[in-house]
Design a protein that fits this description.
It catalyses: Fe(II)-heme o + 2 A + H2O = Fe(II)-heme a + 2 AH2. With 407 residues, this protein is mainly α. The protein contains 14 helices and no strands. Bound molecules: protoporphyrin IX containing FE. Residues 85, 88-89, 224, 268, 271-272, 275-276, 278-279, 284, 290, 323-324, 327-328, 330-331, 361, 364-365, 368-369, 371-372, 376, 381, 384-385, 388, 391 line the site of protoporphyrin IX containing FE.
Length: 407
Amino acid sequence: MLLPLNLRTAVLCGYRTVCHGPSWRTVVQHNPRCRLWLVRRGQSNAVSEAGVHPATVPNATTNRIVGRWLIACSGMVAGAVVLGGVTRLTESGLSMVDWHLIKEMKPPSSQAEWEAEFQKYQQFPEFKILNHSMTLSEFKFIWYMEYSHRMWGRLVGLAYILPTVYFWRRGYLNRGMKACALGLCGFVVFQGLLGWYMVKSGLEEKPESYDVPRVSQYRLTAHLGSALVLYCASLWTGLTLMLPQQKLPNAQQIAWLRRFAHGTGGLVFLTALSGAFVAGLDAGLVYNSFPKMGNYWIPDDLLSFSPTLKNFFENPTTVQFDHRILGISSVTAITALCLYARRIPLPGRTRLALNSLLAMAYMQVGLGICTLLFYVPTPLAATHQSGSLALLSLAIWVLAELRKVAK
Ligand code: HEM
């Protein structure tokens, strides 16, 4: 909607810069057309008090619907991450050796079709080196694991794309939300392509390598990292549309708390990414003691690869060491954040978010240590991976509670 030029300038540049009358906020609040404009841009939910007819979209109700959709999508992405983790931990990820968007949706149905699928798998290094005594029924198990991960991925794609089209056509999305929804849909497609790019790295013959066939740890980290970005972006956008804004004390302390919370959230994200390197290199199996690594606080093969930089991404000892340090730094930062927050009079919901984050951080570290001590059993490792999603979700919740309130 086009506003009169003077009002648009007032909203965008701050009324005070163009006029010496009452503050620009007062002007905006008393002008229904201006408030409608803010509602449409998603900067205000004040539909009814703005005197805007509730049928005008987008409005607070449609924002809530879009918010719920995005939170449901983030739940589906979380499901895909968990399923992907279990697929990797059961060593099922390399069982489907090609990729067809539509054709592969129908699983083999006859004995002959299963035999043919098994024959294809037998041409690749995982069967030749690791699974040469595998039976057809064992193959069916790993095949169905990978199949369910891929089919779930398709469902996630539809869950983003179809409602985007629907909401777009119904006018539920303002300009910012249109860009956001398009970005998220693009990201889902990218995520699928990245998944296949990762699987391909595990299917290649590597005659010069004595290692067991596995996907590249770089590609695994990229695949998990981009799933986490999609998850966080959907959850953040959904929560900011759904959570009623709370009044925070307007003090310097809040600005510090917000900055601190952003840094801590970033650290948790980095720890999760470093976990993907641990998983990708099976680095959870090199030192299975805690707090020391074997008999050492700092193992002597920590920097044994050359050049030094290579150790951080390819040396299992260094990768495990880094993950321990990052995990412990994350829990320390979260503890410090919560202690700092105690000094500030915060609303109850924000405090609940902070306390939940703190409890989850200790649980996640406990899970990580147990995963290590018990030599990475699938149920514990999968729970530890899901724990990282829970921790990230709580960090996002804290950030959403502390977000700047549009005045
Ligand atoms: C804030 C704390 C932590 C976070 C967010 C975190 C996150 C993660 C993530 C995302 C993975 C990858 C899982 C996968 O893709 O399957 C992982 C793997 C792992 N983490 Fe952590 N972690 C944390 C702390 C720790 C600690 C303190 C330890 C042990 C001292 C630990 C031990 C492990 C091990 C052994 C694995 C490999 C499991 C496997 O091979 O699947 N983690 N972590």
